[in-house]
Specification:
Order of helices and strands: EHEEEEHEHHEHEHEEEH
Oligomer: single chain
Length: 187
């Protein structure tokens, strides 16, 4: 097993900034990010932005990124951590048994499990948040509390054991500060 491989889960409508920032940030620190999606293809990413006068975010077409592997391959390979990206992708990825099995396996093995924004919806479906302190996009908080998690609204990023969560792409500085600290604990 390579000791520097990090699995990034996303799909069509994954948040552009969250995917690209993660990939570049991990490469910068010497880790190998591997993007997994339902199939290997060019993924259509989106940009969620916050406009004055809107009650929720707006969505624009984002960049493309090609998945490195599909979810079946991800189940067969070894990684040190898993990151669930936000955007709209988690709406359908949380219904993919392969994604749920991946998250549950990482959690059961005591590996790092991270999610940002709507990516927390995948952790909710995986059933690993009971009693955990979690932050996420504010409109996902009822999912967190409904499954027994403790929603923390006033922090951009929260760590509870090996689970780290962030609110939105605007939380990257706080979120990746915790993520990189947790990776240093592996060495």
């Amino acid at each position: 097993m390579q000791k520097n491989r990090i699995l990034i889960i996303t799909g069509d409508a994954g948040e552009s900034l969250e995917v690209l920032y993660a990939k570049q940030r991990f490469l910068e620190d010497g880790y190998l990010p591997v993007i997994a999606a339902p199939q290997v293809k060019a993924l259509n990413l989106v940009i969620h932005d916050f406009e004055p006068g809107w009650d929720t975010y707006i969505e624009r077409k984002g960049y493309y990124v090609t998945a490195d592997i599909d979810l079946d391959q991800a189940l067969k390979e070894e990684f040190i951590a898993i990151l669930c990206i936000g955007g709209r992708a988690p709406e359908y990825l949380r219904h993919d048994a392969r994604v749920i099995k991946l998250v549950q396996t990482f959690y059961a093995q005591g590996k790092h499990v991270w999610a940002i924004c709507h990516g927390v919806q995948i952790l909710v479906t995986a059933g690993i948040l009971t009693g955990k302190k979690i932050t996420c996009y504010e409109h996902v908080q009822s999912d967190v509390t409904g499954c027994g998690g403790h929603y923390i609204p006033d922090k951009q990023a929260v760590q509870d054991g090996k689970i780290i969560t962030g609110q939105t792409w605007q939380s990257h500085p706080a979120f990746y500060r915790l993520v990189m600290q947790s990776l240093k604990s592996l060495t």
